[in-house]
Specification:
Elements lengths: L1 H11 L8 H12 L25 H10 L2 H5 L18 H18 L4 H10 L8 H11 L6 H12 L10 H8 L10 H24 L10 H7 L3 H16 L9 H19 L8 H17 L6 H10 L3 H10 L3 H12 L7
Helix pairs in contact: 3-6, 5-6, 5-10, 5-12, 6-9, 6-10, 7-14, 8-9, 9-10, 10-12, 10-13, 11-13, 14-16, 14-17, 15-16
Length: about 350
């Protein structure tokens, strides 16, 4: 009886041509999108087969699953570049993710690529980031014998860790884009390639904005060899890079920048690594943050019973190593939660009668 009721509800939602809303959108994609776009109905699918939704395409469902995930919500309290900055206007991992999504969606729409797939990849690309930014990633990579990278952890988050070990069961294309968003990555879809570029465009320029706000340097300190090409402000550089990506990728089976613009972007990125990412005030507290993670890692390796039960279940159901499970737990922490756990475990409390 329940199956009949479900079928009746689906029939009521079918349009005049006998198609569901999802099927109508899939038809529209086929008619409107570029021949190089990833069509929703041609997805390679999910690891576990599911009945299709009657109102959303597969990539829309993936986007929604990421938005409603716990790991996405935790991004609001994870470091982008500056550890524990004083002020409300510095980027976090969440605001960075939203800015990447905005840039990527703009480009996908202009190039008539699949905006829903692009958005899903963008929203999920940093779900596996550790507390304390790349400093946390670097120390976990040293501690875990199996190695640790945030892009592989982002895939592990959506495939395994979310939903109590069931994962989000996302499509192959979204997971491929998440895994390959790094500079050395090679996404299989143009939508993934857009996110790969958009990530760099976002963090280079927005990290410059935050560094100027923190008075680490002034706009005039940026090398003229790069700003003469890209522009003399964050706004101008974003405009140059986004327009260049769109103009040089139109009607092509690839996403590219013009050689002068890409060279300037890479040069500015290298300058940021030398002057902000690996030195200066933004890194002043990194050693403390990394030592905190070492303490947490060693504690939980010695006290596995203190981990949440869903992590212990992974050891049994999947045969995961202790080190991998402890890394999973610590990587999922927000900056604040990691600090709170440290205080709880290692800082003496005042004795009360």
């Amino acid at each position: 009886m329940q199956e009949n009721q479900k079928e009746n509800r689906t029939e009521k939602k079918r349009g005049k041509m006998g198609l569901t809303i999802r099927e109508e959108m899939e038809e529209q994609e086929a008619l409107f999108l570029s021949p190089y776009a990833s069509l929703s109905r041609e997805s390679k699918g999910r690891d576990r087969a599911e009945a299709p939704c009657d109102i959303r395409t597969v990539y829309q469902r993936d986007r929604d699953r990421i938005l409603h995930s716990k790991s996405f919500r935790r991004l609001k309290h994870k470091t982008q570049v500056f550890l524990a900055p004083e002020g409300d206007h510095y980027r976090t991992r969440l605001t960075h993710t939203l800015e990447v999504s905005q840039i990527a969606r703009t480009a996908a729409r202009a190039l008539r690529l699949n905006e829903d797939l692009t958005e899903a990849i963008a929203l999920g690309h940093d779900l596996g980031h550790t507390p304390f930014g790349h400093a946390g990633e670097a120390i976990l990579n040293q501690l875990c014998q199996e190695g640790f990278t945030h892009y592989e952890q982002s895939v592990r988050t959506v495939e395994v860790l979310e939903k109590g070990g069931r994962g989000l069961n996302l499509t192959w294309e979204v997971r491929d884009g998440i895994r390959n968003h790094r500079t050395a990555g090679n996404p299989s879809t143009l939508e993934g390639k857009i996110v790969r570029f958009s990530d760099k465009i976002a963090y280079i320029n927005h990290d410059i904005d935050d560094a100027i706000r923190a008075k680490l340097f002034a706009e005039s300190d940026l090398p003229r060899v790069y700003t003469d090409v890209l522009g003399g402000s964050v706004r101008e550089r974003l405009n140059t890079l986004i327009h260049d990506m769109i103009e040089n990728s139109r009607n092509r089976p690839d996403i590219v920048l013009s050689p002068p613009v890409e060279e300037a972007m890479r040069g500015l990125r290298a300058w940021m690594f030398a002057n902000v990412y690996t030195s200066g005030a933004s890194k002043a507290e990194e050693a403390k943050a990394q030592q905190l993670i070492v303490y947490l890692y060693e504690y939980y390796m010695a006290h596995m019973e203190k981990l949440p039960v869903e992590y212990l279940h992974l050891m049994v159901s999947r045969g995961e190593s202790k080190g991998r499970i402890v890394c999973d737990y610590i990587a999922g922490m927000s900056d604040k939660y990691a600090i709170d756990r440290f205080y709880e475990l290692f800082v003496p409390k005042a004795w009360k009668v």
